[in-house]
């Protein structure tokens, strides 16, 4: 079968933009994961019989652990392929999400949320745009799309979390993060 150069080029371009779409879902998911505590602090505090200030430690601990993880992971990230990094991050975040949604005690939830800070998926989503596109205009467009997903995570994802919590309980709101994680896992191939 004869192949045509323009067909190969268009297939590569399609695959590149599909990768950007996957990175966009990844960026959205990470931001929702980081910000989702804000509408959930009160119901978490009520369920575990603690103050909202104590429940707020969930975010603080995740941020501290995340900063340390960023320093430790930065040298490793360039040595791991985009596909492998995202796959392991998705598996890791899925485990943390399930562990958080099912947390029987506040200490359990605190441990799970601490590990949620170690997700370096957003950094890889952004850096992958440079790896995928050599053309500066396409690369910048891809970065703009991925960065826009971070805004969407706050503007769209956070209200969805709040609506789910309002309709059900904080555990279901937390578990709602599994939907984009399943999409990422399915798109890994």
Strand content: under 5%
Major β-sheet annotation? none
Mean pLDDT, rounded to whole units? 87
Distance between the termini: 26 Å
Helix count, per DSSP? 10
Task: Report the CATH topology name.
Answer: Growth Hormone, Chain: A
What is the CATH top level name?
Answer: Mainly Alpha
Shape: elongated
The Cα radius of gyration reads 18 Å
- Total tally of structural domains: 1
Task: Offer a concise description of the structure.
By secondary structure, this protein is mainly α.
Describe this structure in words.
There is one protein chain. The chain is built from 10 helices and no strands. With 189 residues, it is an all-alpha fold. It is elongated and about 60 Å long.
Q: Characteristics of this structure?
A:
189 residues; mainly alpha; Growth Hormone, Chain: A; 82% helix; elongated
Write the layout of secondary structure elements.
Elements: H1 5-35, H2 41-48, H3 52-55, H4 57-77, H5 82-101, H6 106-116, H7 121-132, H8 136-167, H9 170-175, H10 178-187
Helix pairs in contact: 1-7, 1-8, 1-10, 4-6, 5-6, 5-7, 5-10, 7-8
């Amino acid at each position: 079968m004869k192949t045509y150069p323009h067909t190969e080029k268009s297939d590569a371009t399609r695959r590149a933009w599909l990768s950007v779409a996957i990175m966009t879902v990844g960026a959205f998911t990470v931001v929702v994961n980081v910000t989702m505590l804000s509408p959930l602090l009160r119901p978490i505090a009520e369920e575990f019989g603690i103050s909202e200030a104590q429940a707020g430690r969930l975010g603080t601990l995740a941020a501290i652990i995340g900063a340390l993880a960023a320093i430790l992971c930065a040298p490793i990230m360039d040595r791991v392929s985009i596909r492998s990094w995202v796959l392991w991050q998705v598996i890791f975040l899925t485990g943390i999400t399930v562990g958080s949604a099912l947390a029987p005690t506040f200490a359990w939830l605190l441990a799970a949320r601490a590990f949620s800070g170690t997700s370096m998926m957003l950094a890889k989503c952004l850096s992958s745009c440079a790896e995928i596109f050599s053309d500066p205009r396409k690369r910048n467009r891809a970065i703009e799309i991925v960065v826009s997903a971070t805004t969407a995570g706050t503007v769209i994802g956070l209200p969805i979390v709040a609506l789910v919590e309002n309709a059900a309980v904080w555990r279901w709101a937390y578990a709602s993060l599994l939907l984009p994680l399943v999409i990422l896992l399915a798109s890994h191939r």
